[in-house]
Specification:
Shape: elongated
Order of helices and strands: HHHHHHHHHHHH
Number of domains: 2
Strand content: under 5%
Number of helices: 12
Structural class: mainly alpha
Number of strands: 0
Largest sheet: none
């Protein structure tokens, strides 16, 4: 009855009246304008020129909304039916604000393109469904407008986002990524890889038992990960330093610390002592060179200097663990 889907509790699109189609279009334009303004607010600090683009796009959506309201007032009066995307089966749901806060600038642009494509398909389907000539023309015009939004976004981008501004925004996003994820993650990887070398290899050579060595390595890695994660999250809330969310930084640091230690603890699941030890030593070699690569790639440390610092330091710690274990 009334096109209601018993399985989802949503209306089918075919069951909507012309008035309800207009109501749905009005609410959709309002939602899209709010989303664009939310994107603008999110980008204003790090990508101010792109924020202006989304503010202008929100203004376009407001213009469409006003055109639809005028058409509804002319055909059906002042009372607009309450119907939204989530009430209609098959519509692409918009993400709420809290699920969009972690999107990158490129992801936001992609999301905006998907919004425009969905709006175009809606207006095309709605125009085919209505028999009122005025409403049909308006919906068709809006479909063409939505199809042209990508061009509008491009023109607005040329207006606000110059090549220099885009380069600056991209560099700002890269710096933020490094501050929030790379730096704490690299610190954790270095701590987990290097600091657990001595206890794991000392335990291996002292006991000669692979299972005991694995348990010691597991406990050292997990414990170090928890400690590093909480330390990173607690010592800086990111507001003054601009290093980003303490939770994200804490997770990056804690997870990479644990992985750094587990890399050379896991080989001791192999029951044969020398096979496990040689495998663990090979893993350590790759861990240390990976750290040197990350330092060179993201921290702009000269590769050979990073390699000397990390590989030499790690080798000394490894040798110390072996000597202590044999003592």
């Amino acid at each position: 009855m009334f096109g209601l889907s018993l399985s989802t509790g949503k209306r089918s699109f075919d069951s909507l009246s012309e008035q309800e189609i207009l109501g749905l279009a009005i609410s959709s334009e309002e939602d899209d304008a709010r989303i664009y303004l939310a994107y603008a607010d999110q980008l204003r600090a790090t990508a101010p020129q792109s924020a202006k683009v989304f503010e202008d796009m929100a203004e376009v959506e407001h213009t469409h909304r006003n055109m639809l309201i005028e058409m509804h007032r002319e055909r059906f009066g002042e009372r607009i039916p309450l119907i939204r995307r989530e009430h209609v089966r098959g519509f692409y749901d918009r993400k709420p604000d809290w699920l969009r806060q972690n999107l990158t600038l490129d992801q936001i642009r992609t999301e905006a393109e998907l919004m425009e494509q969905g709006a175009y398909r809606f207006y095309m389907a709605a125009a085919q469904k209505t028999s009122d000539a005025g409403i049909r023309k308006l919906l068709g015009d809006l479909a063409l407008a939505e199809q042209g939004h990508e061009e509008i976004a491009g023109m607005l981008g040329e207006k606000h986002v110059t090549e220099d501004a885009k380069t600056e925004e991209d560099e700002s996003a890269r710096r933020q990524f490094i501050l929030t994820y790379v730096q704490p993650g690299l610190a954790g990887l270095m701590d987990g890889s290097v600091s657990t070398l001595a206890p794991i290899f000392a335990a291996a050579f002292a006991t000669g038992d692979t299972w005991s060595t694995f348990l010691i390595g597991l406990s050292a890695s997990v414990g170090a990960g928890i400690s590093m994660g909480f330390t990173e999250a607690a010592h800086d809330d990111g507001k003054l330093s601009g290093r980003g969310s303490p939770i994200k930084r804490g997770l990056a640091s804690g997870i990479m610390t644990a992985l750094g230690g587990l890399g050379h603890a896991l080989p001791y699941l192999i029951p044969h002592f020398w096979t496990a030890t040689i495998t663990a030593a090979i893993v350590v070699f790759f861990e240390l060179w990976a750290i040197a690569f990350i330092q060179n790639r993201y921290m702009e440390t000269p590769f050979w200097r990073a390699a000397m610092q990390v590989v030499l330091g790690g080798s000394l710690v490894l040798a110390a663990g072996v000597l202590i274990g044999q003592g």
